[in-house]
Amino acid sequence: MNPSPPGDEGALWYDDEAGPMVRAYTITGGRTRPDSDSDVDLIAVMVPAVGTAPDDNLDEEHLALLDLCRDAPLTVAELASEADLALGVVRVLLGDLLRDGHLRAIRPVPPAELPDVGLLKDVIDGLRAL
């Protein structure tokens, strides 16, 4: 039988097809931000750290994220989509994995460090002139 919210006896607040419902704060232990100092950017690419094996004390969600990263490097946003978890939850879990050395983050090059497009065009034009 489906439980109903307090004060609303008999009304269904989810259906049988929804499956088990787990609140985000139960997965993250009530945390809303990663414990580690590293900022988990949405476009940071997560890759497994070399020479690390999963701990026995990692929970199901941590292991699922590790497995996804082992298949192919993925951004934080892609991991959230693939794992079917809320983005905030994934950021907290990835922070744990980064802190413990299971993953490493490859961050995109900041725009200020990218080469000047005009300079690149000049180089290409110079090469074509040869």
TrEMBL record:
Superkingdom of origin: Bacteria
What's a Pfam family in this record? DUF742
What is this protein called in UniProt?
DUF742 domain-containing protein
**Protein source organism:** Actinacidiphila glaucinigra
Q: What is the lineage of its organism?
A: Bacteria, Bacillati, Actinomycetota, Actinomycetes, Kitasatosporales
